[in-house]
Amino acid sequence: MQQLSRRSFIRGAGGATMALPWLNLTHRASAIGATSSDASAPIRMAFYYIPIGVVRRAFFPDPNETEYKLTPSLRPLEPIQHKTNFITGLDRIIQSGTDVHAQCGSCFLTSAAPHEIKNSAYPLSRSLDHVIADRVGDATPFRTLELSCNSHKDNKESIYFDNISWYGTGHVAPSFRDPRKVYRRLFGTQDMQAYRDITDIVLEDARAFKRELGYEDRQKFSEYFDSVRSIEKQIDKVEQKKDLISKIEMIEPEDVSLPRREYIRLMGDLMIIALQNDLTRVATMMVGPERWNTPTMYEGVFDAPKSHHNLSHAQKKEEVRQDLEKIDHFHVEQFAYLIQKMDSIQEGERTLLDNTVFTLGSGLGDGQTHQFSELPIVTAGSGGGRFATGRLISCSSGTPLANLWLSYLHLMGVERKRYADSTGPLTELGVEAVA
Question: Using an 8 Å Cβ cutoff, are 111 and 3 in contact?
């Protein structure tokens, strides 16, 4: 095998090997989030979604403490705690008529307030990642990157249980589950002409079809047309970055079944490479699907597969609650691994983590009560130094989660007075908006 330099490897079951680059690229000063006086990297935004909520007693810090003290579930964050924040008091309003698990996941990043959407039972519209991409996505080959670590082959639930990213109401932004497909998506420039040929045909048919529609139907159809058009734009930007992509030292993942820890880390590593090399500035990563009763094997945690959802409904049993706490700890452990890796990548005087806001969160407070209140939210990174970290931020009870999302929009330079059911930006975070 050819000797490889400057690489970090993950070796999984069956000898699967993934090589990661440690490149220190200089980004243009004109990039979103950079200033003309330095060569700082642009601000990135990423989301790490955990399903089913958490066991609050082992997850949430004591609100009476003035210091940010780590709980048992958060202990993996200890080496990087000074670059994280824990935010309490954030809620979403549940809209009756849909399953709570489907709604908490699919509507986690939604831009729609409850009862705002009249033609869908779900209160979701264009999700936060795509609203941000509307501002920053044209600067990169890929406007967004959607990842899912759902390894199940049985399609037990609808798309609303397994997606947090949406182009618009009813229009899901499909996520990648297979690391090989993510690799080929990011680095497979040899397939670009085939994609371009297909896209040209689809767009030509779409334009002809659109002329036959009435005004209201044309408005609805435009979301579909825009999503296809974005593929064409992405192809142009990938071709512009062929030289950069060809220099990224990376081995395509093998088609093998990885242990869960390595599967999540591999998907996260791919996300980090995309963010680091400015292939995208917006990414979502769903660690697992909502309400999927098929047992999952958590290697190194349990000796046999466990159903996260089923466990969540038996929390009155102490041994079950302990199992759930182990799952929470496991999910935080993988998040800690990723943010430490991001903090190891220098970008001038800062690190990739410093220039990112990477948010761990769930759409449920806990899986037994199905409450949308007191959501678990951990942020890592400071968005280019625009807010302080290492804090426990206690918001007033009932503060809309959308207030945090509105602050993120302001940080990314999106001028909006309202987002979903927000009442204003989350002033406790102290975000300085990008001009």
Answer: no
Contact 132, 89 (CB under 8 A): no
244 assigned to some structural domain: no
Identify whether 114 is part of a domain: yes
| pTM of the full structure | 0.80
8: pLDDT strictly greater than 70: no
In sequence order, which residues have a C-beta less than 8 Å from that of residue 57 and are 6 or more positions away? Answer: none
By the 8 A CB rule, do 325 and 73 touch?
Answer: yes
Distance from C-alpha of 66 to C-alpha of 85, rounded to nearest angstrom? 13
* Sheet containing strand 356-361, strands side by side: 145-148, 282-286, 44-49, 356-361, 377-380, 84-91, 391-400
Measure the CA–CA gap between 242 and 384, rounded to whole angstroms.
28
The count of structural domains within the chain is 1
CATH number at residue 377: 3.40.720.10
pLDDT tens digit string along 300-311?
999 999 999 889
pLDDT band at 38 (very low <50, low <70, confident <90, very high): very low
pLDDT in tens, 250-267: 556 655 578 999 999 999
CA–chain centroid gap for 434, Å, is 21
57-92: b (≥16 Cβ within 10 Å) or e: ebbbbeeeeeebeebebbebbeebbebbbbbbbbbb
CA distance 45 to 271: 11
How many residues comprise the chain?
435
Encoded tokens for 222: 């435009």
The whole domain housing 267 covers 7-157+164-182+258-429
Closest CA to 422 of 114, 105, 120: 114
CB atoms within 10 A of CB 151: 17
- Decide if 84 is inside a domain: yes
Residue 281 CA to residue 299 CA, distance in Å, equals 32
Residue whose tokens read 């330099």: 5
**CA distance linking residue 374 with residue 29, whole number of Å:** 39
Token pair of 203, please? 């767009």
Average pLDDT over residues 10-30: 33
Whether the CB-CB separation of 267 and 149 falls below 8 Å is answered with yes
Considering the domain boundaries, does residue 230 fall inside one?
A: no
- Distance from C-alpha of 382 to C-alpha of 356, rounded to nearest angstrom: 6
Q: Give the Å distances, CA to CA, from 99 to 93, 121, 178, 241, 367.
A: 13, 10, 27, 43, 13
The pair of structure tokens assigned to 393 is 């931020």
